[in-house]
């Protein structure tokens, strides 16, 4: 195993002379640090803990590992390679271990520390350093979740010149954990339910960080009318005292050496983790949209009383999204959502990158990332390309108090790390009742969803929120608890398609989608909420019917799309971008991104822009 990595001399971030030099981020996170880092990807020792005896026997103190595995990778692949047999069907416990040398430091220990970050790993992760159990920055000895990053600060007293890192990962087919479309005890693999893909799924890296610093997460809320940008920052403090947050905003195009604006915010900070909103004015700022994805560069520093600055950087854009009457408004302009459903599955970052470019070529301005966690660099790419993103919480598969606790925890972990991006405009809490199967009959399930919807509205006003996509939206006192009224409509027959759309826009809440569109209190649709057909097509997938060859599929899509645009509908999402497992309804090659249909096929080709009615006075 190679312990002499070329990147093993680490230092904390330093302010550089040319602040506008482009940085390439090789790590699966959205915010950039100028620190050096050590990727711990590659060959790890690997063992399957068949009877879950590793904790009792103290494997973290030393164990004879039988196998090796490549990190990142899936538990399923690692088990198959190790055993040459079938993958797990109920629960799994596996262990990984490797060594790393203590890096040289350019900074004194008094102001810096080593930190290790897992890009994503789960569902249940424990980590030991030289036999000592670590706790995450949030204080967790066991980290739950498998879609977002988490970090450990490495105590000096645990570190040696040569170090041993041990990781235990446990997962089950438990239907109460957020799983998305992976199989569980409730939904078995086949059709739209996929093989499990869990474990060491993203990179892990070591870096030097400041003891007192801004964490790698920045929330951005812009209100375009007042030209103000609201930044949500997270501070990690070990040494209480007087600090200053300094924000500098630079223009990315054209690149500028001098900041457009600089603002300081002095405050006293106590030890621990602190959240702070700060606001700056950006007069004359260009807004972000799919047609003009204007981005700015934020340099944020936490400066201590001695003048030492800990720095992070992020790109951001100013935009405003609203659900108002019949339309979705982007930057106060009604905007039709030309969407496509995207299920990346086990695609690599490079493959997902090709998919994003291909979806833009199809004429899409919206990508619905379906019920999955993805590499955070994809959000950066969508910011740059000008693609609106609709993201979703990977759902549990059963509706219980525990499944709702797990769902909320996963949602909060995801939104914490995604609120930087102007491209992310919409969140689904649930999809087609998965994890909320009793939504029509259980007031507790509806209350949880309504409360979460209200929380998201207040805490994250920069997003639209969907309660339960496809059908069974919730009405409370006649008010829809969803920013969009969405329907999933599947038929290969054009006449049936016209009939379903006509009934939908006429306000028929039953008989259009597979289940009633609204549950709870009576709801009367009078065009007060935008209608979105958030799944349709599926042509080529046997369960949905429709043409299999590309030419016939192209003509069917054109005809169906024309019918959508002839009606007062705010957007649509074609299903789907790529083939995945049994679902053979993609429009592009999943490896290369090469389109199988003409470019621009999913663009509206509307004769004129949407026109919102002028407000009446008096």
From TrEMBL:
PANTHER family named in the record: BETA-GALACTOSIDASE, BETA-MANNOSIDASE
Glycoside hydrolase family 2 catalytic domain residues: 326-441
Is Iron-sulfur set as a keyword in this record? no
Q: What is this protein called?
A: Glycoside hydrolase family 2
Q: Which family does it belong to?
A: Belongs to the glycosyl hydrolase 2 family.
Keyword flag Hydrolase: yes
The UniProt keyword set, sorted, is: Glycosidase, Hydrolase
One Pfam entry name: Glyco_hydro_2_C
Q: Which residues form a coiled coil?
A: none
| Biological process, per Gene Ontology | carbohydrate metabolic process
Q: Where is the Glycoside hydrolase family 2 immunoglobulin-like beta-sandwich domain?
A: 224-319
UniProt organism field: Hymenobacter jejuensis
The record's section on InterPro entries has: Beta-gal/glucu_dom_sf (IPR036156), Galactose-bd-like_sf (IPR008979), GH (IPR017853), GH2_Domain-Containing (IPR051913), Glyco_hydro_2_cat (IPR006103), Ig-like_fold (IPR013783), Ig-like_GH2 (IPR006102)
Recorded GO MF terms = hydrolase activity, hydrolyzing O-glycosyl compounds
């Amino acid at each position: 195993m190679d312990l002499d990595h070329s990147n093993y001399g680490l230092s904390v971030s330093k302010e550089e002379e040319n602040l506008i030099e482009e940085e390439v981020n090789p790590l699966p996170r959205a915010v950039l640090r100028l620190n050096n880092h050590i990727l711990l990807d590659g060959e790890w020792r690997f063992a399957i803990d068949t009877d879950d005896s590793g904790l009792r026997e103290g494997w973290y103190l030393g164990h004879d590992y039988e196998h090796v595995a490549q990190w990142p990778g899936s538990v399923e692949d690692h088990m198959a390679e190790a055993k040459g047999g079938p993958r797990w069907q109920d629960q799994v416990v596996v262990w990984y271990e490797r060594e790393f040398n203590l890096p040289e430091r350019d900074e004194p220990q008094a102001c810096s520390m080593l930190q290790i970050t897992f890009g994503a790993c789960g569902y249940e992760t424990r980590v030991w350093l030289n036999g000592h159990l670590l706790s995450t920055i949030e204080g967790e000895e066991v980290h739950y979740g498998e879609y977002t990053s988490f970090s450990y600060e490495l105590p000096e007293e645990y570190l040696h010149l040569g170090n041993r890192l041990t990781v235990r990962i446990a997962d089950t087919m438990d239907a109460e954990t957020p799983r998305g479309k992976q199989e569980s005890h409730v939904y078995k693999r086949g059709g739209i339910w996929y093989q499990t893909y869990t474990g060491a799924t993203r990179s892990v890296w070591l870096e030097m960080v400041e003891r007192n610093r801004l964490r790698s997460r920045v929330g951005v809320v812009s209100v375009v009318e007042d030209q103000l940008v609201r930044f949500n920052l997270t501070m990690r403090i070990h040494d209480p005292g007087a600090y200053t947050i300094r924000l500098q905003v630079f223009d990315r195009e054209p690149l500028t050496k001098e900041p457009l604006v600089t603002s300081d915010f002095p405050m006293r900070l106590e030890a621990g983790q602190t959240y702070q909103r700060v606001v700056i004015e950006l007069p004359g700022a260009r807004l972000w949209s799919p047609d003009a994805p204007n981005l700015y560069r934020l340099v944020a520093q936490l400066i201590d009383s001695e003048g030492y600055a800990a720095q992070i950087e992020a790109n951001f854009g100013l935009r405003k999204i609203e659900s108002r009457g019949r339309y979705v408004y982007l930057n106060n302009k009604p905007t039709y959502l030309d969407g496509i459903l995207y299920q990346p599955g086990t695609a690599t970052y490079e493959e997902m990158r090709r998919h994003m470019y291909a979806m833009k070529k199809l004429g899409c301005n919206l990508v619905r990332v379906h019920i999955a966690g993805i590499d955070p660099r994809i959000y950066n790419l969508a910011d740059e390309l000008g693609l609106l993103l609709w993201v979703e919480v990977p759902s549990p598969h059963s509706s219980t108090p525990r499944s709702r606790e797990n769902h909320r925890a996963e949602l909060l972990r995801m939104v914490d790390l995604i609120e930087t991006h102007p491209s992310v405009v919409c969140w689904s809490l649930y999809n087609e009742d998965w994890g909320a199967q009793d939504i029509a009959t259980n007031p507790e399930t509806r209350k949880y969803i309504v409360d979460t919807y209200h929380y998201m509205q207040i805490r994250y006003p920069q997003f639209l929120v969907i309660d339960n996509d496809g059908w069974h939206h919730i009405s409370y006192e006649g008010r829809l608890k969803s920013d969009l009224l969405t329907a999933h409509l599947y038929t290969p027959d054009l006449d049936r398609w016209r009939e379903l759309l006509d009934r939908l826009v006429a306000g028929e809440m039953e008989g259009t989608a597979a289940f009633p569109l609204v549950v709870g209190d009576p709801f009367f649709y009078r065009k007060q909420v935008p209608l979105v057909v958030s799944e349709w097509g599926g042509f080529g997938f046997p369960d949905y019917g429709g043409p299999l060859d590309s030419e016939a599929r192209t003509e069917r899509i054109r005809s169906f799309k024309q019918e959508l645009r002839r009606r007062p509908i705010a957007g649509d999402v074609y299903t789907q971008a790529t083939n995945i497992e049994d679902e053979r309804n993609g429009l592009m090659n999943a490896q290369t991104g090469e389109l199988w249909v003409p470019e621009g096929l999913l663009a509206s080709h509307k004769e004129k822009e949407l026109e919102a009615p002028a407000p009446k006075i008096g």
